[in-house]
Amino acid sequence: MNYAVEVKNLNFSYNTNTNKFLLKNINLTIQEGEFIGIAGANGSGKSTFAKMLNALLLPTEGTVSIFGLDTKESKNLFAIRRQAGMVFQNPDNQTVATIVEDDVAFGVENLAIARPEMIERVNFALNAVGMQDFKNRSVAKLSGGQKQKIAIAGMLAILPKILILDEATAMLDPKGRKEIMQIAQKLNKEQGMTIIAITHFMDELLLADRAIVLHDGEIVLDGSPKEIFKNSARLQEYNLALPPVAHIVQCLQQNGIPFEQVFQEEAFVEEICKLLQQN
Amino acid sequence: MLNDITFGQYYPITSFVHNMDARAKILLSIAMIVAIFLADNFYGLLLVTGFTLFMILVAKLPLFRVLRSLKMILFITIFMTIFTVLFGSKNDAVIAKWWIFVITYQGIVNALFLVLRLILLVVATSVLTLTTTPVALTDAIESLLTPLKWIKFPVHAFAMIMSIALRMIPTLIEETNKIIAAQKARGANFEKGGLIQKAKAMIPVLVPLLVNAFHRSEELANAMDARCYSGSKKRTKYKKLVFTYRDILAVVFVAGLITGIVLLNKPQFANMEILRQILHLFKVQVSW
Q1: What are the angstrom distances between the C-alpha of B152 and each of B148, B155, B156, B157, B231?
Q2: What is the DSSP string of B248-273?
Q3: Vertex B220: Cα angle to B159 and A107 (nearest 5)
């Protein structure tokens, strides 16, 4: 069976004449249906890595395969981009059309899909992100979060198996961020879509099945989010902070208060209540 | 500061004109422009004005919104009016003469024609852009330019460039306002000084705007790549352009308009009897 993503001995540099790589010796496999969170400080190479996954950038050394298709083979280019859809950071820089439905249809038009199916796909994609009421609106008048939903819908209309969110929540307000992550979770749970969320918000990693931390172009941590958060000393070394709740719990523990390691706010509140009842 | 640029901005409602085929609208707009220049007396221009107002009414556009696009041509209109009025021909009935300036009735009439034509031109074309989405507009241009494919003109690329340019207008305006605010916060002054000083003050706005535009275009290109865009491959269209009864009706109306103008251009109308009468009321004797 093919992995959704298979990365072997990947080295990458924009400048081919140098030995200083931006991505160094990356080996990674991702199964279909996984929800992966990739974190890293600025300049850790996480966005560069994301662009490797849909052949926007090609490896200098090593290989990247999406469902067994090598990104270096130019004949695979469109097949790969159909499988691995990518949503970018800035909502203003990825809409092509002025009207919502036209923008969602853009990718489908590029695939030369016949019109009846196109209409179906646009409706499906807008429904999946809960934006069907905005179909005829002007993109410019939407909020950042809504624009990002449209960008996701534009990707979904292509029917990809992998959705890559390249810091797609970085420019959004908390509400927008939450909604985008909820959509990603829903797509993962209900449609078995492989999600690769690149982020510098550590709390977003909690939603993932598996978290990967990049530092200086290398994978330094790879495991369940909870395992990774236990390594707070190492996270600090990589210029990353624990999510707020985990940080408070850690401080409490350090001060000798017996506290379960929890990460979500709800669980945290429960723990406090338990502690108060005991006293 | 830049919020009132309406040209090229779609006004999203539904109306008879909104529902017309964009190709028909483009061709009829061209016909309107021809009509505006074809009319060589006030009756003809009055007819075009009436028709333009009728167009706005049918398109359900608020008049102030349409007239706002006239701001663009304010300067050029004033300039051309002054020029035309001050430099009349000495062979006409001269009202006043000073140094190299000659004011004639014919000059004033010409200026009036000019202003009216300019206004009608801008209003008529704004009706097109206010009632047609940029996507429909570029689709229509692409469709109308199809014959040029035979001479290897990149019709699709041309249409795509146009649609992205139109799409970026609000984004770049927003960004310009942000940069202006940011430079003001750093103590820049955009209101003070003469024309040259004001123009100089715009440099710290234009440079970051240009740099950001390049940045944006790179990101947009990536996003388009990610959505399987390739300029050359065959694409399908989401919005289909269909010629309906509306377009036929509109063609009939515009054809009627042009016929009317041609008729009004006949000599018996051309000597502007009414205008002479009006001027006569003010005890002005004119002969032309």
Answers
A1: 7, 8, 11, 12, 14
A2: HHHHHHHHHHHHHHHHHTSHHHHT-H
A3: 70
Nearest Cα to Cα of residue B226 among A131, A66, A203: A66
A112 vs B contacts (CB less than 8 Å) = 233-236
Residue B112 CB contacts under 8 Å (≥ 6 apart), including other chains = none
For residue B147, the 8-state DSSP code is G
For residue B236, which residues of chain A lie inside 8 Å, CB to CB? Answer: 108-109, 112-115, 118
The stretch B114-127 carries a mean pLDDT of 90
Q: Do B224 and A78 make contact, defined as CB atoms within 8 angstroms? A: no
Q: What is the pLDDT of residue B272?
A: 59
ipTM for the whole complex: 0.84
Mean pLDDT confidence for B88-104: 77
- In terms of Cβ atoms closer than 10 Å to its own Cβ (0-12, 13-18, 19+), residue B52 is buried
Closest to A70 measured CA to CA, from A6, A25, A166: A6
Within 10 angstroms of residue A35's Cβ, the number of other Cβ atoms is: 21
Contacts B14 to A, Cβ<8 Å: none
Q: Using CB atoms, which residue from A56, A109, A158 is nearest to B236?
A: A109
Contact B227 A122 (CB under 8 A): no
pLDDT band for position B99 (50/70/90)?
Answer: confident
Q: Which of helix, strand or coil describes residue A233?
A: helix
Residues lower than pLDDT 50 in chain A: none
What is the pLDDT averaged over residues B153-177?
85
Residue A16 carries which DSSP code? T
Closest among A225, A153, A142 to A176, alpha carbons compared: A142
**Global pTM?**
0.76
Look up tokens 């078995």; give the residue.
A192
User: How sure is the predictor about B283, in pLDDT bands with cuts at 50, 70 and 90?
Assistant: low
Give the chain B residue nearest A95 (alpha carbons): B220
The contact set of B with A (CB < 8 A) is 10, 12, 133-135, 163-164, 166-167, 170-171, 216, 219-220, 222-230, 233-240
* Chain mean pLDDT for chain B: 83
Q: What is the mean pLDDT of residues B38-67?
A: 89
CB contact under 8 A, B236 and A82: no
List the A210-215 sheet strands across, edge first: A84-87, A162-166, A194-199, A35-39, A210-215, A218-223
Query: Which strands make up the sheet holding A5-12, listed edge to edge?
Result: A23-30, A5-12, A61-66, A69-70
Residues of B in contact with A93 (CB under 8 A): 216, 219-220, 223
- The answer to whether the beta carbons of residues A177 and A169 sit under 8 Å apart is yes
For residue B233, the chain A residues in CB contact (below 8 A) are: 110, 112
Query: What pLDDT is stored for residue B164 in this prediction?
Result: 85
Cβ atoms within 10 Å of B229's Cβ, excluding its own: 20
Task: Identify the residue among A95, A110, A113 best suited for mutation to test binding to B, counting B beta carbons within 10 A and taking the highest.
Answer: A110
B169-183 tens-digit pLDDT: 888 888 999 999 998
